[in-house]
Amino acid sequence: MSNLQSDQLLQMETTCGSLLYELQMIWDEVGESEAERDKMLLELERECLEVYRRKVDQANRCRAQLRQAIADNEAELATICSAMGERPVHIRQSDQNSGRLKEELAAIIPQLEEMRKRKCDRRNQFLEVLEQIQRISNEICKSTDYNSSKIVVDETDLSMRKFEELHRQLHALQKEKSDRLKQVLDHLSTLNSLCLVLGMDFKQTINEVHPSLNDSEGTKNISDDTIERMDSAIQKLLEVKIKRMRRLQDLATTMLELWNLMDTPIGEQQIFQNVTCKIAASEQEITEPNILSEEFINYVEEEVSKLEDLKASKMKELVLKKRSEMEEICRRTHMVAEIDNGMEYAIEAIESGAVDPACILEQIELQIAKVKEEAFSRKEILEKVEKWLAACEEESWLEEYNRDENRYNAGRGAHLTLKRAEKARAVVNKLPAMIDALGTKVRTWERERGIEFLYDGVRLLSMLEEYNILRQEKEQERKRQRDQKKLQGQLIAEQEALFGSKPSPSKPQSGKKGPRMSIGGANGRRLSLGGAMLQTPKPDLPHPAKLTPHLRPSKKGGLLSHHQDDSCVALSAGRRGLDIAGLPVKKHSFNAANSHEIESPMTRKPFSPLSAAMLPKVNPNFLEDLNKVQGGTMQKTLPNSNTPLATPSKLACVTDEDNRTPKEKMPIPMPTTPSTISVSMQTATTPAPAIATVLFGANKIEDNRTPKEKMPIPVPTTPSTISVPMQTATTPAPAIATVLFGADKIEEMHEEVEYSFEERRAGFVIPKTHVISVVQV
Amino acid sequence: MTAVLPTSAGRELSNPPSDGISNLRFSNHSDNLLVSSWDRTVRLYEASANVLRGEFMHAGAVLDCCFHDDSSGFSACVDNTVRRLVFSTGKEDILGRHDAPVRCVEYSYAAGQVITGSWDKTLKCWDPRGASGQERTLVGTYPQPERVYSLSLVGNRLVVATAGRHVNVYDLRNMSQPEQKRESSLKYQTRCVRCYPNGTGFALSSVEGRVAMEFFDLSEAGQAKKYAFKCHRKSEAGRDTVYPVNAIAFHPVYGTFATGGCDGYVNVWDGNNKKRLYQYTKYPTSIAALSFSRDGRLLAVASSYTFEEGDKPHEPDAIYVRSVNEVEVKPKPKVYPAPPP
């Protein structure tokens, strides 16, 4: 190259020399003056210089431009580096390096390009992140409008640090977004459950909050505003829920009260089980769908109003029911219900519509509460009174027992009676202390409350006093009797000495003493003596009403008739007596059954009319008891007669019952004439083999006998003759004996064969041959 | 408080018999109900539809009836005859006669025989496939110690309860003599005997408000399981009234059983756990008969005066069909497993 250039220069020089030579030649030829020639040469030289200067200037300018370019590039590079937070290493090198400018430029340009590219990338990254940030923050706070053009990247700081910072910011925003999303979903599910419970349209509810929430796939709006609105929606629904829940619970409470009041059957109640079981539930516990919906509440409300209507219509019944409830409490605690008269008025008032029944009901309920309270305070004393009364019963039994001449005879059950007597004595010994204690308790009670302690309307203290007086009287009486007995004993001893031993008329019970007898006897006797002890010390049987004067019925009641009450007491007392005796007595209502089982527990004799209807009157019961006593005395004679009868006791009972019917109709209590009846019994016990002919009639009798007093059907031939003498049964005439005999035959025959209800109804009778075979067996 | 019986008593069937109901039974194949009565009729009801499907008039009061299949049945009549009733044609023919009123009739699916018990102190087996006429249908006559009061079948076992508290247990495959001769463990007249559905024993009720649960197994361990309990009693104002237990019906699914007494109550019992499961509201008068439908979802109750107090005015006879709730008949979960009775 250099060779080539020097060649060119050389060539140019030669060209210049040859040109100058040509010029000289031309000049010589022209004959130019020397001065002209010099002038020409000077001009030539000047022009040459001019050209050189121009070229140098141009080159100089070019160099300056180059330098400028390098400086610019370096500056830009530095800027970029600094913006990117990188160290610009090459700048210093270029300073030191005084190499060619063009090389330098060429070296710097790719660097610059590289940096520019990187910057651009970085910037894009920034943009991206920023855009995301912008978007999220837009989502979060809806207020700032979303506008991508507004994104400005700070070109001066594109460092990694800044980038990381932005990233952190982005992450934070993303987290917030997911948090909010979760919150929104939570709210949505809360709303959903609330809507479900309240029976509202969930979709509509959330549409009202924000339409985007309804979209199951699309993005949900999570802005502050939405969340706030959701919050308020939830709050609102919650308030509604609580309000409705209270309403429902109120309704349920009312419903329960009404059910309780009206004894609504379980089946009807079960329909509303889901309501009533939520009666005490808290807000969170109520999750059942639709349970708080308007319709459901209306439905429950309807039911309640239905019940209310029912209640209104039943109010009278309810009032009566409440009243009987109260009376029951009073009866149990031996208090006298004070409201009876008032109640009658109240019911009249309800009937006439003058008074609001609810008000009366409330009043009664109040009274019941009061009575209950009082009953509670009386409880302790009442228990003591019970004990006292029981002891009194035992005392009277013991007294009677002591009077029994044959009490030490060894018979069946005698050991039990002995045991009972032993216990009774112990109890009697405790009686005075018991009365003292009771008296003190009652006095304390009365002092505390400032009212008298009434027992069935009678002051308990006066009852105690009365008892004490009676006791004293009895003591004297007993003493007198003892003296008399001693005297009598002496008399008998004297007579025996004179005439030899003779059965005393005062001791007709010579044979063994059957346990049934003793029980039956004890029944009647104890009761009668219980009355005698407390009322009149007369030995004969008192009027039934006097039996148990200390157990007074509520006289103002009017619900129970006087007689009924007495009978109940008498009967229950009798039954208790049996229980105490510890005999294997089943508590059958039917007395025949009773005696039967006691008498022959081994023979398992079937009996028919077990379910005897509750006897409606008292007197019959009492008289039945009397008859039992008589039957008992009759019974005693039986073992002597050596009859092959299986169950004579049954006979006794049956005749008693037959006799009873007319007696009931008689106003005069039957005097005790056991001796005459015992005669008839003896005739009755003789077995009669020739029976078959009368059998059918017998069945008829049996059947007609059961319905007792009602007796609607007149019976053919044989029974009619029976019914006539029955009327006169009280007078001990020989005629009766024969009639009874006839009746007995029938009864006896009847009792030999058991019949089922169906057989009786069908009138089915076992043929004679069968009977005989049975008898033989 | 009110005289009107609550609806919980069940649906009352229309067209009830006009006199005492002696028995009623559900079919083993449908909800048809066969009812025999003292008004001399046997009636066939479709219980679920409350329709009277047919009626047969007899010469005397009908004391018992049973199904053969859904198309025919048998009746036991006071006029000593055993009849076959064909429902589709309404025809009846006489299967045979006893010497006294026929008290009860059962059909054994195992033996394909009709078994009747009578007050003539015999049990007779009949083959209903034989042509009409005693000589061709009578399979055998088996004397009983007393008048037959109640019969019950389970599998090949037949339990016969008679007057005098006798109980005979037969194997239908060998009727020549009783497999077991027993005496009722109750002291009073037997009213009803019913075998457990699982075939291990029988329940027996008496006129004195008591039910005995007995077992066929004669071993000491088997007999140790037997017991009796009191029921259908009332205690009122210090008086206890005891009522006859007229009817026992076992639930076909759970093996629990219902008893009905003259007190008008129906009680449901769990014999295994010795618990009373349920008491239905009182019916107007005595419960004369009870029957569960084949799936145990229905219980037919005959509320009809059973003449326990002689001829007297009484509530009208009625049949109630009540749907049975599972709680009423399902045994309560036991504390420990007990062997089934």
UniProtKB/TrEMBL annotation, chain A:
Compositional bias of kind Low complexity: 500-512
Gene Ontology biological-process annotations: microtubule cytoskeleton organization
Entry-linked InterPro entries: MAP65_Ase1_PRC1
Main subcellular localisation: cytoplasm
Source organism, top-level taxon: Eukaryota
Region described as Disordered: spans on this chain: 494-562
Compartments, as annotated in UniProt: Cytoplasm; Nucleus
Disulfide bond in keyword set: no
Keywords, alphabetical: Coiled coil, Cytoplasm, Microtubule, Nucleus, Phosphoprotein
GO CC field: cytoplasm; microtubule; nucleus
MF terms (GO), sorted A to Z: microtubule binding
Coiled coil: 49-76
Protein family: Belongs to the MAP65/ASE1 family.
Descriptive protein name: 65-kDa microtubule-associated protein 3-like
TrEMBL record, chain B:
Subcellular localization: Chromosome, Centromere, Kinetochore; Cytoplasm, Cytoskeleton, Phragmoplast; Nucleus
Transmembrane segments: none
PROSITE patterns, per database record: WD_REPEATS_2, WD_REPEATS_REGION
Cross-referenced InterPro entries: WD40/YVTN_repeat-like_dom_sf, WD40_repeat_dom_sf, WD40_rpt
UniProt cross-references to Pfam families, sorted A to Z: WD40
Keyword Cell division on entry: yes
WD repeats: 95-127, 245-279
Keywords annotated in UniProt: Cell cycle, Cell division, Centromere, Chromosome, Chromosome partition, Kinetochore, Meiosis, Mitosis, Nucleus, Repeat, WD repeat
A GO-annotated cellular component: kinetochore
SMART domains named in the record: WD40
A biological process from GO: cell division
UniProt cross-references to PANTHER family, sorted A to Z: MRNA EXPORT FACTOR AND BUB3
Family the entry assigns: Belongs to the WD repeat BUB3 family.
Protein name: Mitotic checkpoint protein BUB3.1
Lineage, opening ranks: Eukaryota, Viridiplantae, Streptophyta, Embryophyta, Tracheophyta
